[in-house]
Amino acid sequence: MKQNLNLLLQRLALLRLSIAMVWLMFLAYLQFHNFANLQVAWALLVVYLPLLLISGWQGAHREVREWHLLVHLVFETQLLTGLLYFTGGATNPFIFYFLVLLVVSAYSLPALYSWWIAAIAVVDYSLLTQWFQPLMSHQMHSMSGTSLFDLHLAGMWLTFVISALIVITFIPLLLRAKEQQEQEIHELREQQLKNEQLIGIATLAAGTAHEMGTPLMTMHMILDDIAQQEDHPLTKRDLHILREQVALCRQSLQQLANAGRSAHETGVHEAHPWLARLLHRWRLSHPNALWVDDGIECAACIAASPLLDQALLNLLDNAAEAGQQPIRLHSAVVNNTWLLNIAQPDPTAASRIQQQRLFSSQKENGMGIGLYLSNASVEQFGGTVHLQAQPNGGSLCQISLPLSAPEKQ
Q1: Which of 82, 121, 147, 387 is most buried per CB count within 10 Å?
Q2: Interior CA angle at 242 toward 236 and 244, to 5°?
Q3: Whole-model pTM?
């Protein structure tokens, strides 16, 4: 709403500029036809200049609150009343501008403030019907009643034209600003929902990791006891494998805890060395995984975070498990963005792509949240993840990350 009020005040400054130009032409017309006692009206018109400058500057550089807009509208209402008093009062067709100010207040201000503006406008209009300075010309004796009536009709026609222009330009601008604000609110709600889902997943993961600690410790102690027994039924090789697997699980839990504490510690690093390190790490956890280098060496600096490390590993897993062929990797820099394409050329890969359903998977033992979590992690750094089917039946996963300035040594 605050951003909307700033935009509204900027639009109001443009509207004031147009109204000031109309008043300028009107007073010049009266001056040209020798209407008297216009000095005060000219002085009041000069006040419009600082008013529109202040509204334009405040709307662009300061946070506008509702009471700020109330003060602007009250001041302009009184300025308009002064101009009307010296130019015919309620007989002046430009009294229509009261309605424009009421529309602006009703659109943008709370009901109480709008009622205040309406009450002030009604009081001013009522006073102008009784007390005002009639337009008197030095040549009035030569002007008939018909000529004065024609002048009033011309003013009414001009009033209608100006009203139509204001309605078809000013009001749609305000409505589009309101729609844009509602769209931003909708996106913020979606982001909040996504964050709540991620917090829920993280809470469950942390609880599960904590619960796994005790069983793993128990298994470690039992395996140590078995190793001290001479007649245990396990071979030395099987016992060694079991102890290694338990130690690996405990080490993974410890790494998970350390990564969680440093998840939001970000920096900047070169994209190609980072990708090479992660591919080596991925090969250790997936000895049978294969990839083809289609050009991953690319000079680019991107954000560094454990969240991005895990996101890329998840996406590599998904690509490798989507088909039986080696995945193909290619990176490039396009429009200040680092792009990494992970392609699975297997003709059956496209049929295994998740159809954008959260927490569902077509893997035999998968939970389907890997892609969702990877996308959420990449989005935190201004990037995106796009997964799409290829015409040949394969799949393509594209990661995009904005370039970062190299860290100073």
Answers
A1: 121
A2: 100
A3: 0.47
